[in-house]
From TrEMBL:
Similarity comment: family membership: Belongs to the pyrroline-5-carboxylate reductase family.
Protein name: Pyrroline-5-carboxylate reductase
UniProt keyword Cytoplasm, yes or no: yes
Entry GO terms, CC: cytoplasm
Species lineage: Bacteria, Pseudomonadati, Bacteroidota, Flavobacteriia, Flavobacteriales
Gene source species: Flavobacterium haoranii
Subcellular location: Cytoplasm
Length: 266
């Protein structure tokens, strides 16, 4: 299998590194097209001759073309690469807001996979939601999902519009987690812990809670009940959360993110 990665920012580098580390794609079979010179320290294990600044026919002699450029750069990119794309290629896009139909139209191709990864893909713990055009067959879907899974886990959705919801949940989700963690850290500091102690307390609390939940069949509500005894300290905090409607505010924030994702895609 041969892969061409167009755009070598965070996601392009993540894919290159994950493909090589997993052994799923051999380094010599990964090509990179980037508009600026790639720093040597970011070239990973790929041969230096596999990096290109301008499109040319021979580097498109691949099975999969990954579009890892910024959405606003797609229009200009499409003009420069459309003549090299064929219906044999599977085009995998990580560009937010650019529809499958738009990619098919601008590149005159049929086999398109549109995905929404999140930032933990950088350490192999990502969550990616993706949707495919009808022309992608089951075997090709299997290959694509295996490629994506080198960066973490994934789910496939038939309705492309669900990628807006995925953007609001898993795409933006890490920021929500960091927001809540930061509030806990600030509270810990106000209660007398040092900055490093507060960060350590909160980081380990989140890590342990997630791992515990992942190894159990109990629901989140059941775990809350296990931690929050009647009249205890946890219940005191939860009472404040409920009075200030934090639960519904979080949901409303996610709904706003989903709406904005849809607007950006128009």
């Amino acid at each position: 299998m041969k892969v061409l990665i167009i755009g070598f920012g965070n996601m392009g580098q993540t894919y290159a590194n994950s493909f090589v580390s997993s052994g799923f794609v051999q380094p010599q079979n990964i090509y990179v097209l980037n508009r600026s010179e790639v720093q040597k320290k970011k070239q990973f294990l790929l041969p230096k001759e596999n990096y290109f600044l301008k499109p040319r026919k021979d580097i498109f002699d691949v099975d999969i073309v990954i579009l890892a450029v910024k959405p606003q750069d797609f229009n200009s990119l499409s003009h420069s690469i459309a003549s090299f794309i064929t219906n044999v290629h599977i085009v995998l896009s990580v560009m937010a807001g650019i529809s499958i139909e738009s990619i098919q139209s601008k590149l005159s191709c049929t086999k398109v996979v549109r995905s929404m990864p999140n930032i933990p893909t950088q350490i192999g713990q990502g969550m990616t939601v993706f949707s495919t055009s009808n022309e992608v067959d089951r075997k090709e879907l299997f290959v694509i999902q295996n490629l994506i899974n080198t960066t973490g886990k994934s789910i496939s959705v038939e309705d492309e519009n669900m990628l807006n919801a995925a953007t609001a949940i898993s795409g933006s989700g890490p920021a929500y987690v960091y927001f809540f963690m930061e509030a806990m850290i600030k509270a810990a500091i106000d209660l007398g812990f040092s900055n490093s102690e507060a960060a350590f307390l909160v980081n380990q609390t989140f890590s342990g809670a997630v791992q515990l939940q992942n190894t159990s069949a109990l629901s989140h509500q059941e775990w809350i009940q296990k931690v929050a005894s009647k009249g205890g300290t946890t219940e005191a905090a939860l009472n404040i959360f409920n009075k200030t409607n934090i639960f519904n505010n979080i949901k409303n924030g996610i709904f706003a993110a989903e709406k904005r994702s849809g607007e950006l895609g128009k």
